[in-house]
Amino acid sequence: MIVVKIGGSAITDKKGFKIVKIDSIERVAKDIAEVRPRKLILVHGVGSFGHPFVVKYRLKEEKNLEGVVRAHMSCKELNAMICEAMLMYGLKPFPVHPLLTFKLRGGKITFDIDIFEKALEEGFIPVTHGDMVYDVEDRFFKVLSGDDITLKLAKAFKAEKIGFATDVEGVYVDGKLADVVTWKDLDKIGFSKGVDVTGGMRSKVEKILRSGVNARIFSISKFKGFLSCEEVGTLVKSD
Ligand SMILES: Nc1ncnc2c1ncn2[C@@H]1O[C@H](COP(=O)(O)OP(=O)(O)OP(=O)(O)O)[C@@H](O)[C@H]1O
Ligand SMILES: C=C(C)CCOP(=O)(O)O
C-alpha cells in the first residue's frame, strides 16, 4: 500500500485565495495513470482553498458554523478538481470527505476504515483531504490537516510507502537539501511561505517523527519517481 499526500503548496498558490495549480494536478493524475500502483490512497492538502477560511472566520478560536461549512465546501471544490483530473486519465477516484467520515475525541483521530477498505476492494483510489472535523469531546470543529490524515491512514493500512509531495525539493537543513532528517534536525527547519494554519514544513517533519514511521518529502515534479520507488527528496527517518 502507498499512502501519499499532495501538499497544498504544490497544487494551489498559498499566497492567494482559491488559486489552483491545475497543471500540477493533471500531472499527478497522469503519473498515477502511467505507474498504476496496485493499492494507493491519495490525500491532498487544501492550501488556499482551506487555510484562508480558517483565518477569516477565526475557526481556531471560535465556533463559527458558517465558516466551518464554507471552509468545507471549498476543500470539496478542490477535491472535485482532483477527482475530475483523475477521471480524465481513466483512473477511478473515490472522494472521502473527512467532515463526514473522521471524528476527533480530545484531538485524537478516529475514522471509518470500512469506507476505505471497501473502496479499495472495488478498485477505487480513495482521495481524501485536510478538512474541518468535529471533536465530540469539546463539541468544537477543528482543523484536521491532510498530514495527520496521511499518517493515520498509513499506520492503519501498514503502508510500505508513505510520501508527502510539496513545492520544494525536500527538507532543507542549514540551507542544504538533506537526504535524511531525524529528530536532531528539527530545530533547523522553518514553517511555510504562504498562509498556513497547520504548521508548515516544521510541523510536517515533527508529525512524521512522532508517528514513528519513515516517509519521504519530495517535489511534486518527482511524483512519478516516488511511485516508481526512486529515492526522491528527503527521507524523514524516525526509527
Ligand atoms: N527547512 C525547510 N525545508 C523545506 N521547506 C521549508 C523549510 N522551511 C520552510 N519551508 C517551507 O515549507 C513549505 C512547505 O510546507 P507546507 O505546509 O506549505 O506544505 P504543504 O504540505 O505543501 O501544504 P499544505 O499544508 O497546505 O498541504 C515550503 O513551501 C517551504 O517554503
Ligand atoms: C485548513 C483546513 C481546513 C485543512 C488543512 O489541511 P492541510 O492543507 O492538509 O494542512
TrEMBL record:
One of its GO terms (molecular function) is ATP binding. Homodimer. The record marks 14 as: Transition state stabilizer. Catalyzes the formation of isopentenyl diphosphate (IPP), the building block of all isoprenoids. This is Isopentenyl phosphate kinase. ATP binds at residues 5-9, 47, 167, 200, 204. It is an enzyme of class 2 (transferase). Coiled coil: none annotated. Residues 1-210 form the Aspartate/glutamate/uridylate kinase domain. GO terms for biological process: terpenoid biosynthetic process. NCBIfam families: IPPK_Arch (NF040647). It catalyses: isopentenyl phosphate + ATP = isopentenyl diphosphate + ADP. Substrate binds at residues 51, 146. GO terms for cellular component: cytosol.
